[in-house]
Structure formats: C-alpha cells, structure tokens
Design brief:
heterodimer, A: mainly beta, six-stranded mixed beta sheet, five-stranded antiparallel beta sheet, about 0% helix, about 55% strand, B: mainly beta, globular
C-alpha cells in the first residue's frame, strides 16, 4: 500500500506564478520529509527537506510546508521558471534508513 | 562533491540473461538503495543495505538479488531478465542517521527484449 501519495500526476503553471505541489502520507511515524526534482534520463536531485519539528522550511524560491495533523505537505515554488519543469517526488522517512517515495507530479512551467 | 555512480546509462539485454547493475558511492555512506522508476508508479524500493554484507528486501524484491561486499559498492542482480523488468533503475546512498537525504546516481535505463 502506498504510504506516500501524490494525487496530481501533472500540473501546468504560467512563468512567474506560484506552483504548489501536494503530498499526503499515511504513516504517522514519518518524521522527515523531502522533495526531489527529476529530469528525464537523470537521477533525482535533492531539493529541500523538513523535519517534523517544523511546519515550514524555506530555501530561496522553494518553501515546504508540513501539516502533521493532516499528514500533508506541500512544496511552493515562487516565482516559477521554465527551468523548474520536471517531475517532483516527495519522500518520507522515519529512521533515516529507508525512504518512501510518492508517484511524482510532472510540473510544466509555460513561458 | 558527493557522487553516486552507476556503471551504465543504457543497457539492452535479452530475456533470460543474468544482468548486473553496479553502483559505487564515494561518500562513505552506510546505507545504499536500489529503486526502479516506472510511469505512474514512482520510485519503488527493490532492496537496500545498511552495512557491508547486510541486505533488506524492499517493496518489490521478486526477481532481483543484491550484493554488497564493500561499503562503497552495491550491485543489483537480475537472475533471469524478463521483459517486465524493463525500467529505469536508480541507485542511492545515505548516511545512517536521522534527518539526512539520499543521493542518487544518474540512473540506468534497462531494456529487456
């Protein structure tokens, strides 16, 4: 059973606007959450993370929000740029020894 | 700079062949992972290893085995390749501690014909 879910397979956003990617999880033991970005024919690259003791983490144009009670996290990209077009995976971990990934959201930023 | 290197970017193998996918990391990480990525299914864990000669099954280990004889190297073995093992294979490594990310290799696109 999928413990980390990304219910939107794709998202299109105009350049300069905000992109919001969502992720839900079921395991309340998860305490560390990550977002990865993946281009075709390449491995995923780490983007940003958040520990369960926080509800927000920001890094430049990227902000991750965590709502533990709802078991929900989101990635905000603002302003969106065409180079942000990629597949975004959220991941969760409870021990640092295993990472559970969602199915990915394909983001297209339209110039 | 951290580095996870997979031995091949693209491989084409025949059904029934034994296939070896090699992965090397230079970060002295304890944990290493093999995932496969398929459209609509995301990244699914095949096997992982938290120490030399140690291995744990992931979500989809059937048809695969692994070997970790040295800390920096983690091999994925397809004992008898089948067409449903055509996929993108991704190796990753991480420190064995909390609040740490996994670093991925560039991936191997395997096609079984």
């Amino acid at each position: 059973d999928q413990q980390v879910k990304q219910n939107s397979p794709s998202l299109s956003v105009q350049e300069g606007r905000i992109s919001i990617l969502n992720c839900d999880y079921t395991n309340s033991m998860f305490d560390y959450f990550l977002w990865y970005k993946k281009y075709p024919a390449e491995g995923p690259t780490f983007l940003i993370s958040i520990s369960s003791i926080k509800d927000k983490n920001e890094d430049g144009r990227f902000t991750v929000f965590l709502n533990k009670s709802a078991k929900h996290l989101s990635l905000h990209i603002v302003p969106s740029q065409p180079g942000d077009s990629a597949v975004y995976f959220c991941a969760a971990s409870s021990t640092g020894n295993q990472f559970y990934f969602g199915t990915g959201t394909s983001l297209t930023v339209i110039p | 700079d951290v580095k996870v290197t997979q031995s091949s970017r693209y491989l084409v193998k025949r059904t029934g062949e034994k296939v070896f996918l090699e992965c090397v990391q230079d970060m002295d990480h304890e944990n290493m992972f093999w995932y496969r990525q398929d459209p609509g299914l995301g990244l699914r864990l095949i096997y992982f290893s938290y120490d030399v000669k140690m291995k744990e099954k992931g979500d989809i280990p059937e048809g695969y085995s692994v070997s970790r004889e040295k800390k920096e190297r983690f091999s994925l073995i397809l004992e008898s390749a089948s067409t449903n093992q055509t996929s993108m294979y991704l190796c990753a490594s991480s420190l064995s501690s909390e609040d740490t990310e996994a670093f991925f290799g560039q991936g191997t696109r395997l096609t079984v014909v």
